[in-house]
Specification:
It is a single chain. The protein is mainly alpha-helical. The protein has 7 helices and 4 strands; from the N terminus they run H-E-E-H-H-H-H-E-E-H-H. The strands form 2 sheets. Strands 1-2 form a two-stranded antiparallel ribbon. Helix 3 crosses helix 4 and helix 4 crosses helix 5. The longest helix has 26 residues. The chain is globular. The protein starts with a helix and ends in a 5-residue tail after the last helix.
Amino acid sequence: MHQNRRLCKGSAGMKFEVLSTPGHLISLAARGFARLSEARLKPLGFGVGHLPVLVALRDGRANTQRDLARFAKIEQPSMAQMLVRMERDGLIQRTPDAADGRSSRVALTGVARARLPDACATLLEGNREALSGFTNEEAAQLVALLTRVIANLDRVANAETSPHNP
């Protein structure tokens, strides 16, 4: 009886174990990566959520709160809070935007720039450990498959929030 509660009927009428679905397994893997990464990044003064911001600033992909929020795929209020903490911790600096007095430009500090290579190396080591026993081809295939899943999820989310979809 208990086992049947965990089983769901799929669209083709087949039963499947809900805890073995890709969504659940990806969620577990993401939480595991986040825990490992947080623990290893903390001594460097970074958090997992900082990484998209740090990389975007380093690579020149974004330099305003709005663009950083889009890049990191989070809401602007969450980005605003993160930037306040990062500024407090000496990781970023903000300067008024000469073209738009209502916004500011965000840049990495020297401290963040100096620590970022170690943070990237730490994350890559964690990925290597998590993919232990995978061939290079399997790891590349996993990345390709996850990239497709993310694109599908973005497409579905965009369709559901589209003004054409009530």
